[in-house]
């Protein structure tokens, strides 16, 4: 607690039991589905759950897939350092689910595709599909390396868990149940892991509130410390977090995840109907809001406990991502089992994300790289899918070693999704909403996003733009030769005037654009360049099949064996009536005239 000597991490036997049970249950789910689905070994069943899943488990899986250690460790630390303005991301969640359910989902669902990037070949050409696949694989492997390594690093520095033992255990358990059980195992394990994450958060929040004497003292401390900074409406795009960056900017980031990312799309199109798929997105929205509420509340509790004795600036920990583990060992260390529950929550977040990534990587590799170039049987493809799950699991464990070079979790993850996901989102928007487009936009958008991202790492934004809130060690009652009583207090400053910015074009301020805008830059660049190139190259004259663009669902025009057939059915009823079969067989099922 605040003012107390440094915490020495110590796990009791019951903590190891709780943590081990979480890993055991996760692995058992994979064994269960490997046994129950042993007669159905097609890639469709392994990668898509046979398209028979319902809304609730898919919604929980969607929630868990990208609510990893980024949420459990980094989000509370973000609130501790920069305030609760990050909670406004909840607005972007609502916008994202609306855009995804009404624009992307109808097109992907009625096509019955397994890989999102199949759409790019249908809409553009094979080169575009391959480029999109390569971008996705690169993005996912980098992201998964962060997810595996960072929580292990944070926890080993405040507990007795071995760094590489924890890293390898996370990767191996995920690889095990993904390889055995496929998508069903991933989805149902995610349901269990969401419950563990919530339990871990609640243990910390409830104990902190009891220590502080109730909820209102926590809120009062947060207000006095400037942490309730929700209404920052500064239009300066160089400010790290404002109302606009965490709503407008984050909407692009999350749409690039839910709208087109294989790990998410693969889940909701595995639902048994379009209605169930849409419902899964909106139930997932509620899950995202609950997780956000818990993580922000944990951050406010973290500040309230350490408002006068910051363990980071006093040298008790070496990185802000270790704040939550330090708090857990501080306030829950005397309650055997609860530290283990929190560690299980952190690793549940990692397991859910890594398993989703491995399953998605196997899916795009089979569908985009292997299937179009071979004549393998369904059984052979099924075994290859399992082998790829194993291969990608090992690869992601290896990539974890590079994660230490990427800085803080939250900003590193947003940058990865911004640099690669932003341009890909622009390409899909061109395909679905515009009757024409160009591949050149993807290349230029990626180059521009990468340029800004690299520049921001070389020239980090100065404190007057990031606005870190005051932290102090004045209330600490321990002294050592290395730790001095000092205060880290950078008061918010005025935004940099436009005249100053004009003088600094080409200098470090050019790269100080908020990291939340990396994704919008890539998306908007791809759309603008794609449209311009198409206009000047005659691309506006190309004809696009109606099933590849957004259309009204009640009068959808399908291409059936080369004929235009108008069906006065909703996409939902159509898919249910046909069992979501390939459109090439609709002619036989409906007994249409030749």
UniProtKB/TrEMBL annotation:
PROSITE patterns: NA_SOLUT_SYMP_3. GO terms for biological process: propanoate transmembrane transport. Keywords: Cell membrane, Ion transport, Membrane, Sodium, Sodium transport, Transmembrane, Transmembrane helix, Transport. The keyword Transmembrane applies. Its main location: membrane. It holds the Pfam family SSF. It is a multi-pass membrane protein. It is found in: Cell membrane. The keyword Transmembrane applies. The chain crosses the membrane at residues 16-35, 55-76, 82-109, 130-149, 161-179, 191-210, 241-260, 281-306, 326-347, 389-410, 416-434, 441-459, 515-537. One of its GO terms (cellular component) is extracellular exosome. One of its GO terms (molecular function) is organic acid:sodium symporter activity. Belongs to the sodium:solute symporter (SSF) (TC 2.A.21) family. This is Uncharacterized protein. It comes from Periophthalmus magnuspinnatus.
């Amino acid at each position: 607690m605040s003012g107390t000597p440094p915490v020495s991490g110590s796990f009791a036997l019951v903590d190891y039991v709780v943590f081990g049970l979480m890993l055991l249950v996760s692995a058992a789910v994979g064994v269960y589905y490997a046994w129950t689905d042993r007669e159905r070994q097609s890639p469709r069943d392994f990668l898509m759950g046979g398209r028979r899943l319902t809304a609730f488990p898919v919604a929980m899986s969607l929630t868990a897939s990208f609510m990893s250690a980024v949420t459990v460790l980094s989000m509370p630390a973000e609130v501790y350092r920069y305030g609760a303005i990050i909670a406004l991301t909840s607005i972007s969640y609502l916008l994202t689910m609306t855009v995804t359910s009404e624009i992307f989902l109808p097109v992907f669902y009625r096509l019955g595709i397994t890989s999102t990037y199949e759409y790019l070949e249908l809409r553009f050409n094979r080169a575009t599909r391959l480029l999109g696949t390569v971008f996705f694989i690169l993005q996912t492997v980098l992201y998964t390396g962060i997810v595996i390594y960072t929580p292990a690093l944070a926890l080993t520095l405040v507990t007795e868990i071995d760094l590489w033992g924890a890293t390898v255990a996370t990767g191996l358990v995920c690889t095990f149940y993904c390889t055995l059980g496929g998508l069903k195992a991933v989805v149902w394990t995610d349901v269990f892991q969401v419950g563990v994450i919530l339990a871990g958060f609640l243990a910390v929040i409830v104990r902190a509130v009891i220590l502080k004497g109730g909820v209102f003292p926590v809120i009062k401390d947060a207000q006095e410390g400037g942490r309730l900074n929700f209404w920052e409406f500064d239009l300066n795009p160089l400010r790290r977090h404002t109302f606009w960056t965490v709503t407008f900017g984050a909407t692009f980031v999350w749409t690039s995840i839910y709208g087109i990312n294989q790990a998410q799309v693969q889940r909701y199109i595995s639902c048994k109907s379009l209605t169930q798929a849409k419902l899964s997105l909106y139930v997932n929205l509620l899950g995202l809001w609950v997780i956000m509420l818990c993580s922000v509340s944990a951050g406010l509790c973290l500040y309230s406990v350490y408002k006068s004795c910051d363990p980071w600036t006093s040298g008790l920990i070496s990185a802000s991502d270790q704040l939550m583990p330090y708090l857990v060992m501080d306030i829950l260390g005397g309650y055997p089992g609860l530290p283990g529950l929190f560690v299980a929550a952190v690793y549940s977040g990692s397991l859910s994300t890594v398993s989703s990534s491995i399953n998605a990587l196997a899916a795009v590799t089979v569908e985009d790289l292997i299937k179009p170039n071979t004549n393998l049987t369904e059984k052979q493809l099924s075994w290859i899918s399992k082998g790829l799950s194993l291969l990608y699991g090992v690869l992601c464990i290896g990539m974890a070693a590079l994660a230490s070079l990427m800085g803080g979790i939250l900003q590193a993850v947003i940058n990865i999704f911004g640099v690669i996901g932003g341009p890909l989102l622009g390409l899909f928007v061109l395909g679905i909403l515009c009757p024409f487009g160009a591949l050149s936009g993807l290349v230029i958008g990626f180059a521009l996003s990468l340029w800004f991202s690299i520049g921001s790492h070389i020239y980090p934004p100065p404190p007057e733009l990031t606005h870190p809130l005051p932290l102090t060690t004045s209330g600490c009652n321990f002294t050592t030769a290395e730790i001095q009583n000092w205060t880290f207090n950078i008061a918010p400053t005025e935004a940099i005037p436009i005249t100053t910015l004009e003088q600094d074009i080409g200098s470090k301020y050019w790269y100080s654009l908020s990291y939340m805008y990396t994704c919008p830059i890539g998306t908007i660049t791809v759309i603008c360049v794609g449209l311009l190139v198409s206009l000047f190259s005659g691309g506006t004259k190309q004809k696009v099949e109606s099933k590849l663009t957004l259309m009204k669902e009640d009068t959808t025009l399908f291409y059936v064996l080369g004929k235009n057939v108008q069906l006065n059915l909703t996409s939902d009823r159509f898919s249910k009536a046909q069992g979501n079969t390939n459109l090439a067989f609709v002619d036989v099922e409906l007994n249409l005239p030749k």
